[in-house]
Fold:
Amino acid sequence: AQSVTQLDSQVPVFEEAPVELRCNYSSSVSVYLFWYVQYPNQGLQLLLKYLSGSTLVESINGFEAEFNKSQTSFHLRKPSVHISDTAEYFCVLQGQGGSEKLVFGKGTKLTVNP
Amino acid sequence: GAGVSQTPSNKVTEKGKYVELRCDPISGHTALYWYRQSLGQGPEFLIYFQGTGAADDSGLPNDRFFAVRPEGSVSTLKIQRTERGDSAVYLCASSTGAQETQYFGPGTRLLVL
Structure:
């Protein structure tokens, strides 16, 4: 069985502060890893993904995540957040080699306060 | 271009009724997925279509749930004898093929009274 654990359901931070959203996963097969984001009143959007190669992946709006196989983690970080980063963030895995389903964590609600 | 669209955006029904939820994938996307998101949870996989056929329906919770994609484009999720526990947001996603990025629609919020 595969599972994703997001350790914090809510993370409040002040604008321009750094943030880390934690994600751990469990899988008996190799995985692809993703972070999806859901802004208020919008649908899910892909933020970034790890498929292979460099373990550090970045998004266009300054987020980054590092795949750590030994710790089975894929934490999401940003050095300085903006009000507009307020959203719900989902850590997601997909098994390699034929499995199409995405397995989601429960989500972390990031609230950036002025 | 147009993204994944889902209709209706909201559906209120009574326990025991039948409902249909529609998904229009991105044009040209051969793969289509249905997920269900209950309150406070992440989305959970229901079914995956490659073309017209259901390649993986392992996430359908029971035989009250059924989905079709007769022409390999639009898909309909059908729920018979709805129960209050079926209340959730039903999400549809599409992709260009196997193991490609899945693009999600806005969802249909189903409320069973």
